[in-house]
From TrEMBL:
Source organism (scientific name): Streptomyces wedmorensis
Domain of life, per lineage: Bacteria
Record-given protein name: Uncharacterized protein
Length: 233
């Protein structure tokens, strides 16, 4: 299995995929990644020295380091494409419902489970939570690979309007004050989605050039420059 699941690819490219996933998992060091009674928090995210194309996610209950378990998750699908971080987080959450049993230890003695095959199976029917969709929507306006202040839009805040819509508060060149952009967290089938590539690509031209055609009647004191409805994207 190890050989079959070892991806091709340059080392720096694989390391970049690992770093992206690592940054996204930081939010689960205090908020549970999985579990209500058997809570699992992220204790660490590591780049394994002995395996390529893998991120090692160390989980614990937040109290006892000796109860930690490490799970190896794939960054590249056997078909050759990169696995989006959004799907990796959601798939790992599903795998942890019935996690694989550790059958090894990592270099520092943490029990280690190879979760690669389980992750690939979960990717076939991955489901997302509201937090996944909101996090992806925020990154749509403020990607983590864009230095603060160098992007077209600046994210100033957000507020969920309901369980399907988020209002993103942004400032942009040539606008007088903060704008409120309403974006949908669901797809056309009513399922929670992560990321809206069409809207993400269009935003630089929509703001400010096409704001008027998307104006919302909503009045929001946090958005003195107006509220705009992009939920149809």
């Amino acid at each position: 299995m190890a050989d079959a699941l070892s991806p091709d690819g340059d080392e720096e490219g694989l390391a970049d995929l690992h770093r992206i996933l690592m940054r996204q998992l930081l939010r689960f060091t205090s908020a549970p990644l999985s579990g209500t009674t058997d809570v699992r928090l992220v204790r660490g995210v590591l780049l394994p020295p002995e395996r390529r194309g893998i991120t090692r996610v160390v989980l614990w209950d937040g109290r006892r380091p000796e109860g930690s378990v490490a799970y190896d998750v794939p960054l590249i699908h056997p078909r050759g494409e990169n696995i989006p971080w959004t799907h990796l987080v959601a798939a790992l959450r599903q795998v942890l419902v019935h996690p694989p049993v550790p059958d090894d230890t990592d270099p520092v003695g943490i029990p280690l489970a190879d979760a690669r095959r389980h992750m690939l199976d979960a990717l076939d029917q991955v489901t997302f939570e509201l937090g996944d969709a909101l996090h992806a929507s925020v990154l749509m306006v403020h990607p983590q690979d864009v230095p603060d202040g160098s992007g077209h839009l600046r994210l100033d805040g957000f507020l969920l309007q309901d369980d399907a819509t988020a209002r993103l508060y942004v400032t942009a060149p040539d606008t007088a004050g903060t704008l409120g952009l309403d974006v949908s967290l669901h797809d056309l089938n009513g399922q929670v989605r992560v990321g809206n590539t069409a809207l993400m690509a269009a935003l630089p031209s929509l703001v400010p050039d096409e704001l008027d055609v998307n104006r919302s009647p909503a009045v929001d004191p946090y958005a003195p420059a107006g509220v705009y409805d992009f939920t149809h994207w």
